[in-house]
Every structure is written in C-alpha cells, then in structure tokens.
C-alpha cells in the first residue's frame, strides 16, 4: 500500500515499523465490579513502569551521567509514594471506577496542589507527576512504551507527530527514517529529520492507523511517500534508488572544500543550522562555512529544569571553538509556539504562534533571558560568536533586548569576566512587520537573517504545521518574495549583511532567485549544504 504525504527530508530508508504511542492516553470513566482485580491491574502497570524506569535510568547513567539520570530516580519515588498509587487504589475501592480514571484523578490533584505552591522546585515536579503517571496509564492501555532511544536497528518510527523532545531522543544509528500523520515541511520534526540526515515524510494523515509494529516499510523522502509491506520488485527498485542516491551524495562531497561563488563571482556563505552542540560535526563534515542558526531552545528541552549559566556557556563555547574562525550565529531562546518546556508551565493559548513566545517571553522573563545572555557573552571570547534575537516585530523590541545585553555586560565587567564587547547582534526577520520595516531596523542591527519558516506562515496566514493548508504555504508566492527582496536591499543600503536561516535557503527551486536578490548567507540543515553549494555556483 502506498501513502502520500509531504517530503520532509530526502533520501531512502527500508526498515521495520515501530509505532510510537501517543503521548496522551484518552481516559474514559468506567464502573467496575471486581475491586481486587482492578487494583491488581494497576499494580501490574506500576510494576512494569518500575522495570522500564530502572532500565532507562541505567542507560541514562551510562550515556548522560548520574545527574541527568536522577530524574528517573524521582519518577520511581512516585511509584513508591503511598499518597500517589495508594490514593488511586483507595479511589478504585471507594468509587468502584477503573484504574485509569482513578489514577488520572490523583494526578490532577497533585498538579493542582503543586501549581498552588510558589516554589520553583515544587513547580518542576509537575512534569515528573505527569510523566510517571502517563507511563503507568500507557502501561494500563497496553501501549508499547519502548523509549525512542531504545528501538532496534533499522527502525522506521511511525507516529501521529513527533515533539521536539521526541526527536531529540532519536538515535541515528538505529532510527533510519520516520513518518508522521501530521505536520508540514517546516514543522520542527521535519527540520530535525534534515538535521539528523534521516529520510522522513510528514503529513501522511493516517499512517499510524495503516501499519503494524514490525511491518516492512519503504520511506521515499524525495517523493514524500511511504510504501507499506512492498513486494519483491518494489523492494529491489528502492534498494537501487537508495544506492544511486548515496552515490550522488558521495559525488557532491567533492565540493566540501570549494569556496562558494556565484557565476558573477560573488562570494556567498553556505552555513548549517544546528539544535545541539554536537550537530556542528555534520556542518563541518558537509563543508559548512559557519553556523547560521543555533536553535538554543533544544538545550532547554528534554530535561526537567533550566540549564544553568555554566552549562549553557560550555555548550556555546564548544560550538564556537569547534568552528574556529568561522561565524556562529546563536539565536536566543525561542520557546513557545510548538516548543514547550515541561518545567516552564505557561497558560494554554488560543493562537500559540501569535502568542507569548521567543523574544516576547524573554523580555517578560529577564531572569531566564539574562542567564542565557551572560553565557553567550562569556563564550564570545572563544570564537566568532554573533547573537540573534528571534521574533522581532519592532525596533523597540530589539533595543530592549540590547538594553538587557548591556546590563549583562555591566555585570560581567564588575565580576571581572571577559567577553567580546564588539560582538555582532542581529535579528531574525520572520514577522512581516520586520520585513516591511527593514529599512529602519537595518540602521540599528549588524545583520538580518530571514526566517522564512515563520515569515511564510505569517504572510500567507497558513499554519506551517498544518498539512491541510500546506498547498498555500508557498515560498515562491510573490508577496513572500517581495518581502525577502526588500529585506536584503534594506540591509545592503546600510552596509549590513543579510542571511536566510529558514528552510527556503536550502530549497532547490528558490536558490536561483535568492542569488539574484543578492542574499549573502544561506543557512540550512547540514544535509542540504552540498546540494545548495552546487546550485549557488550554477546560479
Ligand atoms: C524560521 O522561522 O524560519 C526559523 C528559522 O526559525 P524556526 O524554524 O526555529 O521557527
Ligand atoms: Mg521562526
């Protein structure tokens, strides 16, 4: 059976299906008659959770160190807490309802109590309660809770959607591709697939419902299709396509050390986008001229508390040091929208992409913002670090962000800590207002980087994550092109450089136009760098 979706990351994979269970289990209240057997069912799920957590903890200790593994210890403590599982048992006996509903009630009580306590540590425990409770609920539902980091070799992950923290767990040595029901080309799962260089198709609508665990599946990332249990002939055809693709990729490697110049002789930088410090390896291996976007929010995800200033400093330092003299544009925290932090509870919003996110949140939470800015400043002496602020809609926001940066510089001066006082600061142009107003902004910034993923969705009012409106999400729409051209011209008029770090920078159809407009820097997933280089040199 062939399923058609949206191509998210090129390449071919032939592997076995692993269905990732939904993060949330739907719970319906049911009356029960046999109290003892319901309690035993709950105990069975708890026991299973204990075994799973012991394994995960052992693995985390080995891979990530004892401090990172400690979170699983606290999850296990909840399983032993009489007020947690014990209370659920009491509800089963008293109200004669099913274990799922009883446990859900206990979880809700815990969350309500924790939310009412003004203490950061206690608030952070909300994520633990939800996580461990959800694990037991999944076990009750009989869902496979194998962690994504634990799957077998040659696995193709099939999921309704993958959250950024799910993708952060993917091990490229075992997961060779993924397929999701929802999402578009610029949803974060798709971007992550390109960063990891694994083929992926998103927006397949009902792929989860169409496969079973262990099915053989072909992922055709170029065409955006998945073939379930293909026949021999199809398998052969795809093995050949895969080999040919790999050969072509190999040939492109000749361009790694070649300087990128357009036909007219203009030197253009082709850089990589990264989400974690270790992603710089792929940028260098693909001949990247620098890092054009470091999405720092990934340092904040997949953990149970904020990264400290020192932890962040180490990560930024590692990246700039590895890149040597090459530029590294580090974007300040862009949380909100589809990127949530388990330990930073924010109210649900009607329109998260238009809501309290990125620079808006950072200017509102200077305590969080300053920790990051201090870490960035301290790391700036180790290489060519530039700071970029996301989601800027007005000059005032940029100036306020600079004000906070100045405050941090003052603090570091007092503490005798070094930083590069001349480091460049720029903004992402991803809100149409910033593009329209780029002439004014260009006077103040050191550079622009056009964030087309958001710029397109805001300009065309077409959600980047929604496959139903993906036909409207068109990088080549004349309105989008006008905004891009205008932004590049504004930067040049003030003698500033203009880059692009949205996915459009690596879009083969868009590259000739972007070269024509005079874009100075193209930043993209590492896996697209060499193809882009080849195209830019031809344009
Ligand atoms: C963008 O919006 O184009 C961008 C690069 O940022 P993100 O995809 O992280 O929103
Ligand atoms: Mg963006």
Automatic annotation (TrEMBL):
Which is a GO BP term held by this UniProt record? Answer: phosphoenolpyruvate-dependent sugar phosphotransferase system
Uppermost EC category: transferase
What organism, scientifically named, is this protein from?
Clostridium acetobutylicum (strain ATCC 824 / DSM 792 / JCM 1419 / IAM 19013 / LMG 5710 / NBRC 13948 / NRRL B-527 / VKM B-1787 / 2291 / W)
What broad class describes the main subcellular location of this protein? cytoplasm
Provide the binding site for Mg(2+). Answer: 430, 454
Q: What does the record give as EC number?
A: 2.7.3.9
Q: NCBIfam families per the record?
A: PTS_I_fam
Name of the protein in its database record:
Phosphoenolpyruvate-protein phosphotransferase
Q: What is the lineage of its organism?
A: Bacteria, Bacillati, Bacillota, Clostridia, Eubacteriales
């Amino acid at each position: 059976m062939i399923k058609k979706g949206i191509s998210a990351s090129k390449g071919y994979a032939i592997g076995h299906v692993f269905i990732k269970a939904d993060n949330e289990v739907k719970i319906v209240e049911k009356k029960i008659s046999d109290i003892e057997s319901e309690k035993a069912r709950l105990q069975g799920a708890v026991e299973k959770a204990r075994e799973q957590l012991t394994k995960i903890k052992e693995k985390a200790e080995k891979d990530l160190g004892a401090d990172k593994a400690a979170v699983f210890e606290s999850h296990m403590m909840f399983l032993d807490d009489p007020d947690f599982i014990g209370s659920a048992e009491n509800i089963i006996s008293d109200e004669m309802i099913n274990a799922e509903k009883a446990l859900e009630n206990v979880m809700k009580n815990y969350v309500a109590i924790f939310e009412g306590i003004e203490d950061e540590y206690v608030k952070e425990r909300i994520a633990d309660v939800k996580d461990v409770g959800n694990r037991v609920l999944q076990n009750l539902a009989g869902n496979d809770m194998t962690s994504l980091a634990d799957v077998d070799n040659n696995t193709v992950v099939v999921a309704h959607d993958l959250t950024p923290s799910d993708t952060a767990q993917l091990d490229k040595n075992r997961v060779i591709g993924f397929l999701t029901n929802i999402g578009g080309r610029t949803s974060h799962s798709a971007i992550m697939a390109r960063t990891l260089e694994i083929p992926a198709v998103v927006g397949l609508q009902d792929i989860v419902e169409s496969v079973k665990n262990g099915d053989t599946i072909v992922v055709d990332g170029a065409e955006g299709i998945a073939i379930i249990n293909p026949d021999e002939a199809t398998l052969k055809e795809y093995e050949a396509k895969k080999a040919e693709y790999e050969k072509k990729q190999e040939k492109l490697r000749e361009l790694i050390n070649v300087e990128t110049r357009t036909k007219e002789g203009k030197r253009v930088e082709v850089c990589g986008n990264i989400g974690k410090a270790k992603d710089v390896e792929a940028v260098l291996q693909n001949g990247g001229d620098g890092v054009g976007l470091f999405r720092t929010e990934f340092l904040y995800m997949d953990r149970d508390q904020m990264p400290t200033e020192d932890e962040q400093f180490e990560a930024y330092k590692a990246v700039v040091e590895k890149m040597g003299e090459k530029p590294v544009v580090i974007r300040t925290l862009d949380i909100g929208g589809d990127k949530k932090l388990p330990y930073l509870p924010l109210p649900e919003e009607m329109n998260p992409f238009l809501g309290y996110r990125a620079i808006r949140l950072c200017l509102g939470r200077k305590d969080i913002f300053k920790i990051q800015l201090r870490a960035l400043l301290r790391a700036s002496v180790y290489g060519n670090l530039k700071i970029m602020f996301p989601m800027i809609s007005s000059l005032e926001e940029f100036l306020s962000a600079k004000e906070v940066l100045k405050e941090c510089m003052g603090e570091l001066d007092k503490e005798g800590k070094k930083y590069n006082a001349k480091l460049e600061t720029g903004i992402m142009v991803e809100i149409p207002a910033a593009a329209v107003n780029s002439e004014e902004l260009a006077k103040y910034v050191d550079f622009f980087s056009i964030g087309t993923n958001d710029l397109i969705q805001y300009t065309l009012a077409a959600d980047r994550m929604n496959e139903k409106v993906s036909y409207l999400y068109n990088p080549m729409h004349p309105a989008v092109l006008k905004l891009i051209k205008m932004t590049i011209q504004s930067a040049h008029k003030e003698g500033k450089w203009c880059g692009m770090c949205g996915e459009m920078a690596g879009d083969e159809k868009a590259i000739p136009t972007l070269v024509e407009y005079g874009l100075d820097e193209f930043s993209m997933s590492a896996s697209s760098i060499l193809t882009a280089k080849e195209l830019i040199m031809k344009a």
